[in-house]
Structures are given as structure tokens and as C-alpha cells.
Design a protein that fits this description.
Layout (H helix, E strand, L loop, with lengths): L1 E8 L11 H10 L2 E6 L7 E6 L2 E6 L8 E9 L3 H9 L3 H4 L1 E6 L14
Antiparallel strand pairs: 1-5, 1-6, 2-5, 3-4
């Protein structure tokens, strides 16, 4: 099952200069990490909304927060427990936070107007 791991910067985390390079190398070698990358800073974010048919584009993050998503990794794990174990080995689990969510595949056939 695929899990998306959000790497979160949290100013209350333990100070660390540890690079995620060894974690990435280990998880790539194990075939657990399918893909991942860092993200540009929140100042570079663009928020997109459509309200009453009008496109609204806003520079910056959606909400004010001391925490922000700094990167992501797509994992292939047999269970949430395994994904949590993998996430706990990432340096940002100590210096920030890691959010893990299972992918929720869309079944278009069950959606209104979907294929039958």
C-alpha cells in the first residue's frame, strides 16, 4: 500500500544538522521509498481557489502557521505500522515532525457521472 509522508518543519523540534541522505539511501535500497523531494519555502507557495466561478490566486501559504511542509516521500509499505517505523527513522522525526497518510485511490466508477 502506498503512504505519503509529509516532512514538517517544527520550530519546537530538537536542533539537528543531520542530513536525510542516509535515510533516503537506506529506504531507496530497501525499495520502500518510491519517490520524494523537498519543497520550496512557504513564501514561494501559491494558493488556488475557485469561488462562484472566479479563479482566486494568492501568493503565500493558505494559513499562518509556525509549522510547514518542507518535503514529501511516497512510500510502499505493507501496513501503517511499517510506514510509521520508516518515518520514525527520518531525521526530521526528531527535528520536526512527520505526517503519514495512506493513499486513498479514487474509484471513478463509483463517483456520480463516473464510468460504469
Amino acid at each position: 500500500m502506498e503512504y505519503l509522508m509529509f516532512v514538517v518543519v517544527d520550530p519546537t523540534g530538537e536542533p539537528s544538522d543531520e542530513s536525510p541522505e542516509s535515510w533516503v539511501t537506506e529506504m531507496d535500497a530497501a525499495g520502500t521509498r518510491l519517490h520524494g523531494d523537498r519543497l520550496r519555502p512557504v513564501e514561494d507557495a501559491t494558493t488556488v481557489r475557485v469561488r462562484n466561478g472566479e479563479l482566486i490566486v494568492t501568493d503565500g501559504p493558505f494559513a499562518e502557521s509556525k509549522e510547514w511542509i518542507a518535503g514529501y516521500d511516497l512510500l510502499e509499505c505493507d501496513s501503517l505500522e511499517e510506514a510509521v517505523e520508516v518515518a520514525s527513522k527520518h531525521p526530521m522525526a526528531r527535528a520536526g515532525a512527520i505526517e503519514v497518510r495512506a493513499a486513498w485511490p479514487i474509484d471513478f466508477a463509483t463517483l456520480p457521472g463516473g464510468a460504469s
